[in-house]
Amino acid sequence: RSRGEEGKPGEYVLSVVYKGRPTHHLMTKNSDGKYTVNKKTYGDHSTVQELLSTLAEDGTPGWPVKLDKPVKKKGKKASMKKASVRKASVANAESKKEQDENEDAFYIFKPITREEVEEKLKAAGLDDGRFLV
Predict the structure, then answer these.
(1) Letter string b/e over residues 28-55, b meaning 16 or more CB atoms within 10 A of that residue's CB
(2) Which has the closest alpha carbon to 127: 59, 61, 70?
(3) Does the structure show a pLDDT above 70 at 67?
(4) What is the C-alpha separation between 37 and 83, in angstroms, rounded?
(5) In 3-state terms, the chain is what percent helix, strand and coil (to 5)?
(6) What b-and-e string marks burial along 113-125, b requiring 16 or more CB atoms within 10 Å of the CB?
(7) What string of H, E and C letters represents the secondary structure of 24-69?
(8) pTM of the entire structure?
């Protein structure tokens, strides 16, 4: 989920089931414009989707569980492929592209409470690797 009013633009919370329990991790961009999880880098990723694709691989060094069970928004088709983007002005192209991808991603929810996130994870099943943003 996006941190909404609590956080800054571009901050997201990755909620993951690990050892049968929901865990929550802050995803932000570092000073180089690359996404991190809890201030740790897992590659050179400028979008949330790229970072999550890496964390969906087996054996990502330093990450304890493969993200392989996304919680889907209602009406969204499951696909880890990047969403198509609309044209934007040159000055806003990167942020617009990322915003469009985030709106279209089936596992990225609009700002919701921690309790709502945990309800969604529990409803989908507390299997390790289940996640939503």
Answers:
(1) bbeeeebbbbeeeebeebebbbbbbbbb
(2) 70
(3) yes
(4) 22
(5) 30, 20, 55
(6) eeeebbebbeebe
(7) EEEEEECCCCCEEECCECCCCCCCHHHHHHHHCCCCCCCCCCCCCE
(8) 0.76
